[in-house]
UniProtKB/TrEMBL annotation:
InterPro entries: GH (IPR017853), Glyco_hydro_18_chit_AS (IPR001579)
Protein name: GH18 domain-containing protein
Organism classification: Bacteria, Pseudomonadati, Pseudomonadota, Alphaproteobacteria, Rhodospirillales
């Protein structure tokens, strides 16, 4: 991928998933957390839209999958207000996720209308096949039953959302393992190698940023190792993802020191190349009290990632 292909991705991207189910009720755009996001959160994914969303227009979000507790008109105006306040921020619609998986009924036309009516900058394609069917096959290459579906979806989404609209893709924690130096990387699971063939296919040129869902992977998982594995197969903008605790699968648990250290490693690894960054899920998430550096909410983690990446104004809090 050359720089022209990624011209819409901010330098040192910090992508945050804005969890619609945790957003506070609001009667106007200025009362939302969305419109008040600080400048260092330079990519925001509104989460989540159903692949089979029903949307005919007029900003009726009731069957789209988004769970904001206010009308679509308020969401549209909050997006516009955020972009006026932070003109360097890119706003995306996250499509899919773990709970919305009816991809056989994908309605791209509905998603195109929703992108247009909300005034966002593109989509985040979060395809999580239940059974990717991956295995190492001669001559030492991973092959997955989901490879064709991934490539087809990326091609269709790029056709529906031509540049300068953005198309970003989150990859499974272990999705770049299974070959070469990472053939025996731990942990292993059904998603081992599930992203490799997409990222070396011709369709990869349609992708503007890849993020690594480096969480819910168990106690043997090393997020830095996962980042390096992805970097070997993907040279474009790459964001290492962290998650608000607690972890459901036993790790890794992201503390403020760990998140900041990883972000600093990413920034140092790519000093001459600003295409490396971080991702946070879910921004508004809050673990059980007490909140603190060893048990952070999304606000504390976002500031830690900002500091680690060397971005400006990291003391700006999220309202």
């Amino acid at each position: 991928m050359d720089k022209a292909q990624a011209q819409g991705v901010p330098a040192r991207p910090l992508l945050v998933y804005h969890d619609s189910w945790y957003e506070r009720p609001a009667t106007g755009p200025a009362a939302t957390t969305l419109a008040s996001l600080p400048s260092y959160m330079n990519m925001v994914a509104l989460s989540f839209v159903r692949p089979d969303a029903v949307y005919w227009g007029r900003l009726d979000l009731s069957k789209t999958g988004l769970q904001y507790g206010f009308p679509g008109t308020v969401l549209r105006d909050a997006v516009a207000l955020l972009k006026r306040r932070q003109p360097g921020t890119r706003v995306l619609l996250a499509v899919g996720g773990a709970n919305y998986n009816n991809w056989d009924a994908l309605d791209l036309d509905a998603i195109v209308r929703l992108v247009r009516d909300l005034g966002v900058d593109g989509v985040d394609l979060d395809f999580e096949p239940e059974s990717p069917g991956c295995a190492l096959r001669p001559p030492g290459r991973m092959r997955c039953l989901s490879d064709g579906a991934w490539q087809d979806l990326v091609g269709r989404f790029r056709a529906a959302f031509p540049r300068p609209l953005l198309l970003t893709v989150p990859g499974w924690s272990i999705g770049a393992y299974g070959e070469g130096a990472w053939q025996n990387a731990q942990p292993r699971g059904r998603y081992t190698g599930s992203m490799l063939n997409l990222l070396r296919s011709p369709q990869a040129a349609a992708i503007d940023l890849v993020s690594v869902m480096a969480y819910e992977a168990g106690p043997t998982f090393d997020p830095w190792q996962a980042y390096q594995a992805y970097r070997q197969v993907w040279s474009g903008p790459l964001a290492l993802g962290v998650q608000v605790p607690p972890s459901q699968l036993g790790g890794p648990t992201y503390t403020v020191p760990l998140a900041e250290r990883l972000a600093r490693q990413v920034a140092q690894e790519a000093q001459a190349d600003e295409r490396a960054g971080m991702m946070l899920y879910p921004l508004l998430g809050r673990p059980p009290d007490p909140i603190g550096p060893d048990n952070p909410d999304g606000r504390l983690l976002a500031q830690a990632l900002c500091r680690g990446l060397g971005l400006a104004d990291c003391d700006q809090p999220l309202p």
